[in-house]
Write a structure and sequence with these properties.
CATH superfamily of the largest domain: Sodium/glucose cotransporter
CATH class of the largest domain: Mainly Alpha
Helix content: over 70%
Radius of gyration: 28 Å
Number of strands: 0
Order of helices and strands: HHHHHHHHHHHHHHHHHHHHHHHHH
Strand content: under 5%
């Protein structure tokens, strides 16, 4: 009771964020740039009115623009708002995601990219039909569309939820719907417009992440911030915690996160559209390398912002004192406090969030419409349908998906539970689809029976784990570990002095954090679902394929990765085999063959 009263005494009302004239001008310029890009690609540069032009932008994009667009595809509002909070609550073990991204980039460049760059498919799921069967392709496409439709409303909802505390609820909702409207129009303009927005997003996100961290360090300095984070237990370089419910240990960040990213970078429709938009595979690999460096830089900046957040609130956690309702609102609350010393910083960050959210939604809408058209509409259309008509249908699908997203964001009051479920479903489908594609690309003996059985059992296992984890969360059996948070420094006059005094207390509390033993299989962190799904497909699919004795002698070698092709038996040259089949047999050759056969038969009889 005394602690609660103490917290109430330190509760500080939070004033809404209002843009000043400069921020309104900057936001207007950003919105004008977005509208200008939409206008240019819809009305002026509309020569790519074909399905291939709409999806791949003519396949003659520059390396730099595609690289920046790939970086922007990782810079969602979840990254800019969620990663700093993760560092604030659980430490810097998330830095190991840089290792994950390096591994993912190498695997993509060596195993997956050569296959899809040779085949040049309009839909990545077309590969599954070539490799396995039509049923496998349909099942994978349905899983992809369902997961993306569940995830799509969450992308604008995350910044809406975060800024609802410091802005008018109606204003935040209008901003989210405006963001969705711009994204829909960008998706209608095609891949070239999405890549152009990605270039703008990358630079705005860089400024929106680096500036708050740098300005917040001015009152205390880098050395003081580092000492506070160290004594508070936030500097975690290697955490080998075997507890499976601990979703930020080293193995979770490197192993489980790599599985999710491998699907997103190497096999997702939106990523493949960008990688196939350049003319050669060498340029595509350069784009991958540049984007890897850029994303690692942005991840490290987000980690740095998280350390700054902890140094700022080390002795007076805003959630414990009632200043915020959830830790997801920590970054807006921090910016609101920082704006009292540096006016305009809130506007820069909100504009970067707006731009990142717009680009991410546009890319998702474009990929959903492309898959819907290629998988469920085009097979039923007459072959004589013109490319212009097909392109118009895809644009109409973009509008329909955008209206769906805007409707959900506007009508839904709380999507917190859906956010967690959508993340889990996305992880389940990502792992299953990754295992399915990897099975076909890597294993030369894999067949349709192995693929379908592995896919089915993977979905059953991961769905069972997901439902059990949701129930464990609801009953309190599954809790996420985090570092201690304090309120002993609240109400002090000298903020820097308060931070210095609470470091020892924070350190002692951090060393006494209790750990819970694994009580059931359902306490496994949901971040393991993609890894479990992919491994299940491989462990079931490969033996099942061997049991059904599949034959791959007649399979197109381009469907396998270069490493698998090197282990295959050398196939006869197609031109030679075709010439043998077409050429009429020579009578002289027939007589010579018969004569040799008779001589051999005579030798056998003599013996």
């Amino acid at each position: 009771m005394a602690l609660s009263a103490k917290m109430r005494n330190f509760t500080v009302p939070v004033s809404p964020i209002y843009f000043n004239v400069a921020e309104y001008c900057l936001f207007g310029i950003t919105l004008g740039v977005i509208i200008g890009i939409i206008f240019y690609f819809v009305f002026v540069n509309n020569k790519y009115n074909t399905v291939s032009g709409f999806i791949f932008g003519g396949k003659n994009m520059s390396t730099v623009s595609v690289s920046l667009a790939l970086i922007a595809s990782h810079l969602t509002s979840i990254t800019l708002l969620g990663v700093p909070v993760e560092i604030y609550l659980r430490g810097t073990q998330y830095w190991a995601s840089a290792l994950s991204l390096i591994i993912v980039t190498l695997l993509t460049a060596v195993i997956y990219l050569p296959v899809f760059h040779k085949l040049q498919l309009s839909s990545s799921f077309e590969y599954l039909e070539i490799r396995f069967s039509t049923h496998t392709r349909t099942i994978a496409a349905v899983l992809f569309v369902i997961s993306k439709l569940m995830l799509l409303p969450i992308v604008p909802y995350v910044p809406l939820m975060a800024f609802r505390l410091v802005t008018n609820p109606l204003a935040s909702r209008i901003t989210a719907v405006t963001c969705v409207a711009c994204s829909t129009l960008i998706a209608v303009a095609g891949l070239r417009a999405i890549i152009s927005i990605g270039i703008v997003t990358t630079f705005l996100a860089l400024a929106g992440t680096a500036l708050p961290s740098g300005l917040a360090l001015l009152p205390m300095g880098f050395k003081k911030m580092w000492e506070i984070a160290d004594h508070g237990g936030r500097l975690v370089l290697y955490d080998p915690d075997p507890e499976l419910a601990h979703h930020t240990s080293f193995f979770v960040v490197t192993l489980a996160l790599s599985t999710n990213w491998l699907w997103k970078v190497a096999l997702s429709q939106s990523s493949l559209q960008k990688l196939l938009a350049v003319s050669t595979i060498s340029k595509a690999r350069i784009c991958l390398a540049i984007s890897c460096v850029g994303v690692i830089l942005m991840k490290l900046l987000s980690c740095f912002l998280g350390l700054t957040l902890y140094a700022w609130f080390a002795g007076c956690d805003p959630l414990l004192t009632g200043q915020i309702k959830k830790h997801e609102q920590l970054v807006p609350h921090f910016l609101n406090n920082l704006a009292t010393m540096f006016p305009g910083i809130c506007g820069i960050f909100i504009i970067s969030i707006f731009s990142a959210t717009t680009g991410c939604i546009a890319s998702i809408i474009n990929s959903i419409s492309g898959v819907l058209f290629e998988e469920f509409i085009r097979p039923w259309m007459p072959q004589s349908t013109s490319e212009l008509a097909c392109c118009k249908i895809m644009k109409l699908l973009c509008l329909v998906v955008g209206l769906y997203c805007a409707g959900v964001v506007w009508t839904a009051k709380e999507l917190d539970r859906l956010q967690h479920v959508a993340s889990g479903v996305t992880g389940v489908t990502a792992g299953t689809l990754l295992g399915l594609f990897t099975l076909g690309i890597v294993s030369s003996r894999a067949n349709c029976s192995g693929a379908l059985s592995g896919c089915l059992l993977s979905l059953l296992l991961c769905g069972w784990l997901l439902i059990g984890a949701e129930n464990a969360l609801a009953t309190g059996a599954l809790t996420f570990q985090r570092k201690p948070l304090l309120t002993s420094g609240c109400g002090k006059a000298n903020f820097t002095h308060v931070l210095v005094n609470v470091t020892t207390t924070a350190y002692s509390a951090a060393t006494q954090m209790p750990t819970k033993p694994l009580q059931s299989l359902f306490r496994i962190s949901f971040t393991y679902c993609p890894f479990a799904g992919a491994i299940t497909v491989l462990l079931i699919g490969i033996p099942m394929s061997y049991l059904t004795k599949s034959k791959t002698d007649s399979m197109n070698p381009d469907v396998f990765c270069p490493l698998t092709q090197s282990f295959l038996h050398k196939l006869p040259d197609r031109s030679t085999s075709e010439s043998i089949e077409i050429r009429a047999p020579n009578s002289q050759e027939i007589y010579m063959a018969l004569d040799e056969a008779l001589k051999h038969l005579k030798e056998v009889i003599d013996r």
